Amino acid sequence: MIQHASVSKGRQENPRILRNAIAIAVASLALPALAETNVAIYGIIDAGLLYQSKTGTDGKSKSSMETSGLRQTIIGFKGDRDLGQGLEGFFNLEAHFDTNNGQFHGTGDAQGNGTPFFRRQANLGLRGDWGSVTFGRQYGPALLAHIGTEPRAFKEQFSNLYAWAYNQYAATNGAPGTERNTNNDVGIFFSNAIQYRNTLGPYSFGVLYSPGGQAGSLDKNSVWAVGGTYTGPVVLSASYQVIKDQATANDNVRHGGLGFAVPFGDFTFKANYLNARNSLSTGSNVSNVNAIGVGTDWKWHPKNTATLAYYDNKDRMNKDDHTRNIVISNDYSLRNDTILYAQMAYVDAGDAATIKTSIVAAGIPSVGHKSTLLNVGLNFTF
Predict the structure, then answer these.
(1) Residues 97, 74: Cα–Cα separation, whole Å
(2) pLDDT of residue 114
(3) Closest listed residue to residue 286, CA positions, set 254, 333, 262, 261
(4) For a tag on the chain, would you pick the N or C end, based on fewer CB atoms within 10 A?
(5) If DSSP states are collapsed to H, E and C, what string results for 307-344?
(6) Cross-strand bridge partners of residue 342
């Protein structure tokens, strides 16, 4: 019961009574179970400046503040609790926003679903020596498998993170009655998902399934995805995922990947191949994009890592939807949690280039032209 201090007209409350009342209120609201749970707040703040030599159809240059050049800007909450007998419970809540204006980053969810507060993660699960099972909105295992083999580790600017995302966006983001899947957000985040993950020696893998929630069908609106990584003298990665239409259960997206990374002294050589096939809900093929990336990381100083990467992305169904890209970058660690980065991309875009072959967050800088982009920024992790 919460006690209240009485107040007579013209007379102030006794401060001691007020303090006691607050103490009793706090004690009555306390949840003893929270003392047994480890809870942490974490995040990334990332912002910088972006210069583009050409933009749009007029070919003019542009300078702007850019959010999330190295990694996405996020704030998250995570926790775990020992349940005894080798079992642990955990949860993750993670929101994505833009540093330049403070707004939510937006979403790749199907039209009409709104913008999720916790776009990236909203899940809980159990783990033990047998692995883990996670329930809710979460990262898919396919993209996670390739982080060590993608030439720029799927950095938020100038990497094949965008060939990945944009090829799994249009075929599932429609309004009801068009191409649509309400469990998919750009092939990276999945709602209503169940995922099993485990690590067995040098092998780590995940298997995810999102039930469609459609009456009379186990296939409509569903997603399944698998991804695995071998980490030994070399790193190998493989993945595959299928995203089905809400109304017809057609495979609107079929996406697969293979990759490897080879360390050699201060250098790490990487190669990654991605293929994305999009179709209409009727089954008609729309695009078939090959995204190839090769690159080298060079740890040339204890605080500096330079990267040289080349990306060649092409839609086999539209030869002019093709981009060739060269990226040069350097990450300078002021300390382990603070990085000053500089990265430059040279983009040669075909006459019909689209976001499906882009490595740039905002899409193709200038269709049918060659462009140079320079991004300098600061990444702060806490």
Answers:
(1) 6
(2) 87
(3) 254
(4) N
(5) EEEEEEEEECCEEEEEEEEEEEEEEEEEECCEEEEEEE
(6) 330, 376
Q: For residue 370, what is the domain's CATH number? A: 2.40.160.10
Burial class of 240 by CB neighbour count within 10 A (0 to 12, 13 to 18, 19+):
middle
Predicted TM-score of the model (pTM)? 0.88
Look at residues 246, 237, 245, 241 and name the one whose alpha carbon lies nearest to residue 256: 241
Alpha-carbon gap, residue 291 to 273, rounded angstroms: 6
Considering the domain boundaries, does residue 22 fall inside one? no
C-alpha pair distances (Å), 36 with each of 26, 127, 128, 133: 18, 17, 18, 21
134 contacts 197 by C-beta, under 8 angstroms: yes
Q: Of 31, 109, 73, 34, which Cα lies nearest the Cα of 379?
A: 73
Q: Are 249 and 276 in contact (CB under 8 A)?
A: no
* 142: nearest Cα among 183, 191, 70, 195: 195
Q: pLDDT tens, 318-358?
A: 999 999 999 999 999 999 999 999 999 999 999 999 999 99
Task: Give the pLDDT confidence score for residue 18 in this predicted structure.
Answer: 47
Residue in this structure with the two tokens 């996020």, named with its chain if needed: 74
Does residue 264 lie within any of the structural domains? yes
Least confident of 27-31, 54-58, 275-279, 345-349: 27-31
| Nearest one of 255, 252, 253, 254 to 281, comparing CA atoms | 252
Count of structural domains, the chain: 1
pLDDT at 7 over 70: no
CA atoms of 153 and 170, how far apart (whole Å): 24
**Residues composing the chain:** 382
Whether residue 255 lies inside any domain: the answer is yes
Residue 293 sits in which domain range? 45-381
d(CA 354, CA 9): 72
